[in-house]
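In response to the reviewer comment on reproducibility (Comment 2.3), we provide here a single inverse folding case reported in full, input and output, so that an independent group could reproduce the run without further information from us. The structure tokens appear first.
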């Protein structure tokens, strides 16, 4: 059984929301661990964290509102907030915007993106467990690793089909995010320019997400592509321009290792 709720005594607890909450806690714990030994800590960083969490929560819930060209065909704000679909991509955009707004308000000038890279990957890996347990796994697959839903399970998931092996697309993403976390965590403070680590992660995740959408099972809206894919395509010119500009400035170059790293400078 793929439960949507699990029970604590008589209380039914939303499985998806629990794992999203655990993901946030995991990300926050990783972020705090990274701050160890970084003295002095600018107190304004807590405002940036609050801005990122607020922006991410708002846009992950409201960012999928405009699913139809006619505004009247979309859900109202309250209905969207309570029952609308959630979006990781919208949440990332909201978190990024929230962090930028918080930095502007607090007048924090230093780059903070690299501190968020590994925690975000870890948090998303944990949160995606909730998606794996409660959402449509993916499109049909002939592979032996496919997940097969029972009739009762399929009845609780929109567009799900019972008795057919499906791609465990969320498991693919969990593996990607865990691998990204290891790479990001091991290479923190290794790039010559601040912000390169986070930028590289966003580019890698955007490419992965575009490809995995082909087996995700999301609704195809035009030309064989889903809404997340069209969103990524719309953002791609800015992403490519930013990556090219950063590359030309040596932003993705590694900083030389020091004696403290165990290698001569």
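Designed residues, in position order:
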């Amino acid at each position: 059984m793929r439960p949507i709720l699990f029970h604590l005594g008589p209380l039914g607890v939303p499985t998806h929301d629990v794992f999203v909450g655990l993901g946030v806690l995991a990300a926050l714990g990783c972020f705090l661990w990274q701050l160890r030994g970084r003295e002095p800590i600018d107190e304004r960083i807590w405002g940036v964290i609050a801005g990122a969490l607020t922006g991410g929560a708002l846009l992950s819930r409201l960012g999928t509102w405009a699913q139809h060209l006619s505004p009247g065909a979309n859900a109202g704000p309250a209905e969207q907030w309570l029952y609308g679909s959630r979006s990781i991509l919208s949440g990332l955009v909201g978190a990024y915007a929230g962090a930028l707004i918080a930095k502007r308000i607090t007048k924090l000038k230093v780059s903070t993106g690299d501190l968020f890279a590994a925690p975000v990957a870890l948090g998303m890996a944990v949160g995606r467990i909730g998606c794996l347990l409660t959402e449509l796994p993916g499109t049909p697959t002939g592979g032996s690793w496919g997940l097969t839903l029972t009739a009762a399970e399929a009845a609780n998931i929109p567009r799900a089909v019972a008795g057919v092996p499906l791609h465990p697309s969320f498991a693919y993403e969990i593996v990607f995010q865990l691998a990204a976390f290891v790479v990001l965590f091991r290479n923190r403070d290794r790039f010559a320019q601040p912000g390169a680590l986070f930028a590289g992660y966003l580019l890698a995740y955007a490419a992965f997400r575009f490809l995995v959408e082909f087996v995700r099972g999301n609704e195809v809206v035009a030309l064989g592509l889903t809404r997340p894919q069209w969103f990524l395509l719309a953002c791609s010119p800015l992403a490519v321009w930013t990556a090219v500009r950063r590359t030309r400035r040596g932003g993705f170059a590694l900083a030389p290792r020091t004696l403290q790293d165990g290698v001569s400078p």
